[in-house]
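Input.
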Amino acid sequence: MKTFFVSFVLLLSLSLFGCKPSSDKLSWHDNVDEALKIAQKENKTVLLNFTGSDWCIWCKRLNDEVFSKDEFVKYAENNLVLVKIDFPREKEQTPETKSYNQQLAAQYKIEGYPTIVLLRKDGSELGVTGYVEGGAVNYVQHLQSFK
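Output.
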């Protein structure tokens, strides 16, 4: 109970003072076509994150160790348009979202989670990866190796 109270007070304090945890600073899209339009306009790479956000242990680790860290947030803001394609077990999704996500998984031949697909701004595939040990700095370097 004490841990819950401390966590609650911390989150309340952050929200009152306008601070956000790093993971809240990321803007995740849910439509690849819209992301590609932004990427073309801003000359960025599209990162598709195929995830099982509420059940996949490696997806949660990728989020906690990489996507929530300031080093990744800064890199993403300048270089990436982020798209989350989620396959949750507990979270509700509309039938349209489920169908769209399944179509994308088939298109990109997704066999496991997390799978990260990098697309050039023209929509062509730059590379495919997943969870990589070493934290945010290492992951940014890993993503940069695809260029």
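The domain at 20-144 is CATH 3.40.30.10 (Glutaredoxin).
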